[in-house]
Specification:
Order of helices and strands: HHHHHHH
Radius of gyration: 16 Å
Number of helices: 7
Number of strands: 0
Strand content: under 5%
Number of domains: 1
Shape: globular
């Protein structure tokens, strides 16, 4: 289920946050709620890149490395795409795989992660596959028709 309006709003807020134009608090306040599973998955993943208690932008000591920014740009690109989000629900999907210590192993968290990672090509997340990613690159919705 694609919520085009929420995705457009989420993409703009995420793009501005990743570019260091708005703070983490502005990101949190501006990111929409939706039943579109991509919205929640990307918000949950971006949460890993900021501090809940200190207002800041992704600049200076908080700046993401260039390789990380390239990955984040792919997440924004997904929000602008017409691709369905096909991954199973899991916390922090965009930063998988996660190493689990004893407590996580006792709770069988690695089994959930294995099922998640087996669902698609993780190097293209939130796209399910290289084919899905390539399709979105060839059919951009942002500025289409201009």
């Amino acid at each position: 289920m694609i919520d085009y309006e929420a995705r457009k709003e989420a993409a703009e807020v995420a793009r501005r946050f990743v570019a260091g134009q708005i703070s983490n608090f502005e990101f949190e306040n501006g990111f929409p709620s939706s039943k579109d599973p991509a919205i929640r998955a990307i918000e949950d993943t971006l949460w890993c890149f900021y501090d809940d208690f200190e207002e800041h932008q992704l600049r200076d000591k908080w700046i993401a490395p260039e390789e990380t920014k390239k990955v984040m740009i792919r997440w924004v690109m997904f929000l602008y795409s017409d691709e369905e989000y096909e991954w199973p629900k899991i916390s922090y999907p965009g930063v998988r795989p996660i190493e689990y210590e004893l407590f996580g192993k006792l709770l069988n968290r690695y089994k959930n992660q294995y099922a998640f990672l087996s669902s698609g090509e993780i190097e293209y997340w939130p796209f399910i596959s290289k084919e899905s990613f390539d399709h979105a690159k060839k059919n951009p919705s942002l500025l289409a028709g201009y």
